[in-house]
Design a protein that fits this description.
Length: 317
């Protein structure tokens, strides 16, 4: 059990470092910023310098703890982000929890974690615009979680189970991405929506230049909020690997954990590629139409196709 926990911690820290480093590296090359390029060899120490900067603001955390409401959102976000990650198996042997309803539980925890970050806005009053903005952000996360849940039902229908182990075992012959490309595309775009980054940074209104709920945080609160977001996206990327890329299934020349890491890294590069090259979609209404009209429609279309294939071509599955 201790060895499995160490595997999970190593995988989490490695995934956090890689996705943050690639994120900053790609933006640094595009915007010619010195920090991520000059701090250490090719900017490898930039992440550690930012962590150290946040830790140096440690006394501010104890000052703000006098008002629990200022920090409850940050702790909710981090707690549910870690719980979602712990529900995900890395291989057939490396897992901490094996629950029958692991997929819906994991997606629900990620959704709650995203809403928890919004609850970290300080000094929200009912007579200010911050309360309206807070409710707007929470409703946005709920709406854009719909295509994510619907798209994940395709692999569930094929495997006849909500258990992530059974979903991976059902892909021992064919990966789901081969006959569910629509579902995979919707899942990837939904991950971008929940990550709140370009080109689908929906929680930002067009008049904002920075994320309001992060700009109110300092020190460790800001660090925890940012890490929670990255943990959520790592969990979603691993889920994408398990749902569509066969998880740890692969040739025996490599360890199953290595296959999980390679496939997750490929999805990570694709998501960062979308982040860096696609311009922002302006207008809240356009983004709502993208979620409810386009993504949900494609998800339901994929479900109809999969139901037809399962009913009439069942021997293939």
């Amino acid at each position: 059990m201790i060895l499995k926990a160490l595997y999970f911690l190593l995988f989490l820290f490695l995934g956090l470092y890689i996705i943050i480093y690639l994120h900053k590296k790609a933006l640094a090359h595009m915007q010619s910023r010195r920090g991520p390029l000059q701090t250490g060899f090719h900017g490898t120490l930039q992440i550690f310098s930012q962590i150290l900067k946040s830790i140096l603001n440690w006394p501010k955390l104890f000052t703000s703890l006098q008002d629990l409401s200022n920090n409850i959102g940050v702790m909710i976000s981090l707690t549910f982000a870690i719980l979602a990650f712990l529900l995900i198996p890395l291989t057939e042997d490396i897992f901490l929890m094996n629950i029958e309803m692991s997929l819906p539980l994991c997606l629900s925890f990620i959704m709650i974690s995203n809403m928890g970050a919004f609850l970290s806005i300080k000094k929200v009053k009912l007579n200010t615009n911050k309360m309206a903005d807070l409710l707007d952000r929470i409703s946005t996360v709920l709406i854009f979680s719909i295509p994510l849940f619907i798209s994940s039902m395709g692999p569930v229908i094929v495997s006849s189970s909500f258990n992530l182990f059974e979903i991976v075992r059902a892909q021992s012959r064919f990966y789901n991405i081969l006959y569910q490309p629509l579902s995979f595309i919707v899942f990837l775009l939904s991950c971008s929506l929940l990550w709140q980054r370009l080109p689908l940074d929906v929680p930002l209104k067009d008049t904002y230049f920075s994320t309001d709920y992060l700009s109110t945080q300092t020190g460790l609160n800001y660090l925890i909020s940012t890490i929670s977001e990255y943990i959520n996206i790592i969990s979603l990327l691993i889920l994408g690997t398990l749902l569509y890329l066969g998880g740890w299934n692969g040739p025996k020349i490599l360890h199953p954990l290595v296959w999980t890491i390679i496939k997750t890294f490929i999805l990570q590069v694709i998501l960062l590629f979308l982040y860096t090259i696609i311009p922002r979609i302006r207008g809240f209404r356009k983004k709502m139409n993208l979620s409810l009209a386009i993504l949900c429609l494609l998800s339901f279309l994929n479900l109809l196709i999969i139901i037809f294939l399962v009913l009439y071509l069942k021997p293939i599955f």
